[in-house]
Amino acid sequence: MLNRYPLWKYLMVIAVITISFLYAAPNLFGEDPALQVSGSRGTEVTPAVLTQAQQTLSKAGIAVKSAALADDQLLIRFRNTDDQLKGKDLVADALGDGYITALNLAPSTPSWLEAIGAGPLKLGLDLRGGVHFLMEVDMDEALSRVQEQTVQDFRTDLREQRLRYSGVLAKDGGTLVVFRDADTRDQALSHLRGRYPGLMFSDRDNGESFGLFAVMSEQRLKEVKEYALQQNITIIRNRVNELGVAEPLVQRQGAERIVVQLPGIQDTARAKEILGATATLEFRLVDENADVAAANAGRVPPNSELLRDRDGRPVVLKKRIILTGEHIVDASSGMDEFSRPQVNISLDAPGGSRMADFTKDNVGRPMATVFTEYKTGDELNEDGTRQFRKQQEVINVATIQSRLGRSFRITGIDSMAEAQNLALLLRAGALIAPIQIVEERTIGPSLGKQNVENGLMAMVYGMLAVVLFMTIYYRKFGLVANGALLANLVIIIGVMSMVPGATMTLPGIAGIVLTIGMSVDANVLIFERIREELRDGRGVQQAIHIGYDKALGTIADANITTLITAIILFAVGTGPIKGFAVTLMIGILASMFTAIVGTRALVNLLWGGKRLSKLSI
Fold first, then answer.
1. For a FRET experiment, which of 160, 362, 471, 546 has its CA 20 to 30 Å from that of 341?
2. Hey, which bits of 411-453 come out as E strands?
3. Residue 75 in this model has a pLDDT that exceeds 80
4. Which residues contact 274 (CB under 8 A, 6 or more apart)?
5. pLDDT at 393
6. What pairs with residue 540 in β-bridges?
7. Quick check: 272 and 437 in contact, CB under 8 A?
8. Burial of 574 (0-12, 13-18, 19+ CB in 10 A)
9. Which residues lie across from 412 on neighbouring strands?
10. Distance CA 371, CA 359 (A)
């Protein structure tokens, strides 16, 4: 029995360790304190902005390590955090409100490693620092939007059924429909009750008119609130991912609140810009019969509304909304045949049908595209939170040339950068209801740095203790186990750096420290089995072979049960628990590979094929 490995197994071990080392290597180069400058509301970041920022920093005597434009953003690297903090205020003041200047940490990975897709570990909020928000969904606005939609739907349904009514309006938290006679009211009740099972209907007569009042049932109210919360969570997550924030945490808290954590972002203004943008589109008909001058003076027709376009010109629009951004499933920027910016929009099936039905009957009439945005105002609610201001702007007015379907385009946009920004917001989704930030915390990188240092020290001390014990107790075989331990650590960090979505947290470091102890467990089982076989009088080569062979089942059983537990932790856990489970799972698989395959390869290379009378173990 010669205990030799085939060549392909040696090559496999070398390949796994080499690839893991390459992808773990970026973590050795650290990160630079940096400023990230991006445009607000589509403002384009040009080479002129780069020059202006460099000149501003140069005048102040602040040394810049590098500055470059990439992906419509300017990244300025500094040599230390003091220069970063000073430079942030100077650059922000020099560029003005049209740009967002955020603190950042930029990896110092060499270009040759970036070329193969290697990058440093993504660190969680507890290690890297970042911002934490507790956000509350404005449920009153969500219910108000549903109520407005109910008013429009009632009008459409009653017209289609040719049931004449005096008026349909939102009132007292419900929808009131007024009729001239009781018979028409009863016919409408019979029709609407079947169409809207989530509403409760009652009569409201005042002697001269006959009213029908509809209010949402408790079940329907609950459904609307749950939908608003879940949809906002999905949209915020999509928006953060679209804008490139690494490893965000977005999850619900209670019935109306959302927790958002953004690792690596130190500028709350930048984070609010990402999360608070509640942009959407509305499509409405222009009121051709309205007197614009009279409306501008305050005399607006009852079913119309006065808005303004980008140049401040007044436009009178019908209050009825043809379609909102909720039905937009995709949006992309591009250029029209005259090389002007445009946004191409795709609708879902209900939205496409509604747009097609409406435009079919209104060919030749002007339709306006309205950009709607909610911003936090200065006035306070009773609970001390800030109220929302609804800002609307007419992007363009175009005549309906033909029946539109699920795909169409909007023009009248000032720049390509603004078209890209608008497309991004629409693609990420429009928030169902505005959100109010009720709590915000910024976790500084210094705290994260301390956590990293403490975690690394724990790992180093743990490894030194294990290495010392294995060397003394198992001698040369202990050195083999120590080599496998280092390879195990390299594989864990390399895999964590490679896997998309894997984030290193403080519990994750605890998982690695635990894995260090577990990884030598397998070697202890193997080495003790080899000792037993030697004591029983077996030959050296036979003892090695039986030691690895017999210990394999025990090692597999012990690690598989731990792996099952880690999988369950990952499945049901959240936040820190998931971080611990991920590193534990990767560590278990890596330790099994290094203990069973890696050390066997090294033992076979050093002692296999030799006639030995004794073994240093």
1. 362
2. 435-443
3. yes
4. 239, 240, 243, 245, 262
5. 81
6. none
7. yes
8. exposed
9. none
10. 20
Q: In what order do the strands lie in the sheet with 73-78?
A: 64-70, 73-78, 31-39, 99-107
Q: Between residues 453 and 587, which one has the greater pLDDT?
A: 587
Count of beta carbons in the 10 Å neighbourhood of residue 84: 21
The Cα–Cα gap between 343 and 359 comes to 19
pLDDT grade for 425, boundaries at 50, 70 and 90 = low
In angstroms, rounded to a whole number, what is the distance separating the alpha carbons of residues 127 and 350? 45
Q: How far apart are the first and last CA of the chain?
A: 19
Task: Please give the Cα distance from 136 to 454 (Å, whole number).
Answer: 35
- Provide, rounded to the nearest whole percent, the portion of the chain with pLDDT above 70: 87
- Cβ neighbour number for residue 336 with a 10 Å cutoff: 11
| Cβ-defined contacts of 195-199 (< 8 Å, 24+) | 195/157, 196/150, 196/153, 198/223, 199/150, 199/175
DSSP track, 343-403: EEEEE-HHHHHHHHHHHHT-TTSEEEEEEEEEEEEEEE-TTSPEEEEEEEEEEEEEE--S-
* pTM given for the model: 0.60
The mean pLDDT value for 93-112 works out to: 80
Distance CA(396)–CA(391), nearest Å, equals 16
Could you report the per-residue pLDDT of 203-244, keeping only the tens digit for each? 888 777 888 899 999 988 888 888 888 878 877 876 676 555
Q: What mean pLDDT value characterizes the chain? A: 81
The pLDDT value recorded for residue 340 is: 82
H/E segment holding residue 479: helix 445-498
- What angle is formed at CA 216 by the lines to CA 214 and CA 222, rounded to 5 degrees? 175
Spell out the residues 6+ positions from residue 336 whose beta carbon is closer than 8 angstroms to its own. Answer: 342, 409, 411
With a CB cutoff of 8 Å and minimum separation 6, the contacts of 357 are none
Q: Yes or no: say if 591 and 518 are a contact pair by the CB < 8 Å rule.
A: yes
Per the CB < 8 A criterion, the answer to whether 594 and 524 are in contact is no
- Kind and range of the H or E run holding 262: strand 257-263
For residue 283, name the pLDDT band (cuts at 50, 70, 90).
Answer: confident
- pLDDT category at 277 given cuts 50, 70, 90 is low
Rounded CA-CA distance 449/128 in Å is: 7
Tell me, what's the pLDDT at 439?
82
Question: What are 6-28's pLDDT values in tens digits?
Answer: 888 889 999 999 999 999 999 88
Q: Provide mean pLDDT across the span 94-113.
A: 80
Q: Which residues have CB under 8 Å from 126's CB, separation 6+?
A: 443, 448, 451, 505, 506, 576
Distance CA 392, CA 412 (A): 15
Our separate counts of H helices and E strands in the chain read 17, 23
Question: Helix, strand, or coil here: 587?
Answer: helix
Q: How far is CA 200 from the centre of its chain?
A: 39
